[in-house]
Amino acid sequence: MSAMTPVFMLLSVQAAMGAFDNWWHHELQARLPHRPSARYELALHAAREAIYGVVFFGLAWFAWHGAWAALIAALLLTELGITLADFLEEDRTRRLPPLERVLHTLLTISYGLFLGLMAPVLWSWLQQPTALVVAPHGWVSWLFTAFALGVWAWSVRNLRAVLRLRRAAAAPAAEPQAVPGDSQHHTAPATLVTGATGFVGSALVAQLLQGGQRVIVLTRDVLQARASLGPGVWAVDTLDAIPPETPIDAVVQLAGARVLGMPWTAARRRVLLASRVDTTMAVVALMRRLHHRPRVLVSASAVGFYGASPNASMEPLDENAPPRPGEFQSDLCAAIEHEARRAEALGVRVVRLRLGVVLGNGGGAYPMQALSARLGLGAVLGHGRQAAPWIHLADALGLIRFALARNDVQGPINAVAPGAVPQRSFVQALAASFGQRVWLTMPAAPLRWALGEMSTLLLDGQNVVPQAALALGYQFVHPDLPGALRDLAGTRTETEAR
Q1: 3-class DSSP state for residue 279?
Q2: In the chain, what are the domain boundaries?
Q3: Most buried residue, 3, 177, 190, 446, by most Cβ within 10 Å?
Q4: What residue stretches are annotated with the DUF1731 domain (predicted)?
């Protein structure tokens, strides 16, 4: 075994943990590339990844003798400084979840062990005459070349995000926005938004602020909310922090843990229920103690209210269709709506927004679906005939604003585009928006076996129609799927081009 073997083994572990941290925490959870306040953190990540690329490729193919060894040592020490700066920036701008803290601890320990293994190697190299000696390590060199290309690509991607976010931050705001201090010093009625750092919530808050409205947000991470949403919001981590004299005109309840993801174990079901029902209960409790009750509550539910049996996709479901007791997604949505309706007894107009899959570039399901389609990996799920109710982000926000503004909007509202399409047609249209075709089919049996009841979200649909929205006169911005997907693909392409 060569002296470099344990180095490569440890670096492989480091690369795997770092890739998971980047994808799961930075991309999917914190959504750093979409947050103007994350520019500095992303710049640090880009620099660190560039260094890792040099280290991966350099150690895979060369022995760095003499002054070259000093260069490698300087790069490793620079990476250590970048990591320390990154820790400080993360503590300043967001509250890390427990898993990310544990992973960062493991990455730090692993990097320390790596430095310990590299120290005698570098010292040995330093004693040699200065030369860059070709020293391949068989298949390991090719593996680490792939690692290097991956981190360099991610470094470039983060650098482009930094430049894009800097341009966005430098652009003048559409409207001047007040900086909130103590809520008691404000007399203008506010809109309270829960789940404000999520995909739909953050876009809604941005629109409200651009319209000159005062916004209060409930969030688990006040630091992240302030960093991502900007200084024009008042962020609280408990509704008890809002004094009873605070004037709140409207409430939008969007909070809730991600439904599609972790298996629906008993513990996960409790989390899904608590994240939605408990927040809705807290919102209603706040309304009871406010001196002036809000005018309206828009509470987000989902089309899962109607259940997802295989036959449901054949029946048009308007807002009068009943739930399907015994199916978890239906019971979850029914529980949310039951708690929201308690606000009606307080004289508050309640709108129960039953959202389909929201399509937008900033988050949700679309970015991963789009990536698969662009790579030619889009797949028909099961027989592909199950209805796939969807709505463009612009219309999801439009319906929320419509419900806030119109006093005649109340009760259940199906927030879906007119005419759900079969899943097969959906994935084909998605692929076509990128000039691709669909070649793959995923049989239903493995999905049902692997995902259990959660597989119904993918394999069994609801043919939901927005009857109430259309009857009230809402004009959809993107009523048809091909047009919506062209808009999203075009928006993404233009953003990447910039």
Answers
A1: helix
A2: 5-170, 183-497
A3: 190
A4: 442-488
